[in-house]
Write a structure and sequence with these properties.
Length: 95
């Protein structure tokens, strides 16, 4: 993942670690434990854009629900339950 540096070293030479963070994330430790990361603005914005918030199904729109109702599994992912072992072979499987 990048460089690891003590917080005290970052404090002493912030410019060096600022420049390093423009190239790759810098793990900053305190008392030997990771506490924060210093990342470039570009990396931050990429991470923030990919961040997903968990939400309630009650927040789904009618269009979202319609898309889910009409969704189909692509043919390359088709699954045939007849290929499964019978419950007698694997008693832990329940349907």
């Amino acid at each position: 993942m990048g460089k690891s540096v003590a917080a005290s070293d970052v404090q002493k030479d912030f410019g060096l670690w600022h420049d390093q963070a423009l190239k790759e994330p810098v793990q900053i430790t305190q008392s030997g434990r990771e506490t924060i990361y210093l990342v470039s603005a570009e990396t931050f914005h990429q991470l923030w854009a990919s961040y997903r918030r968990a939400g309630s199904t009650l927040e789904l729109s009618e269009a979202d629900l319609a898309m889910m109702d009409n969704a189909e599994v692509p043919s390359e992912h088709d699954y045939n339950y007849e290929d499964d072992p019978s419950p007698e072979t694997n008693p832990g499987i329940q349907r």
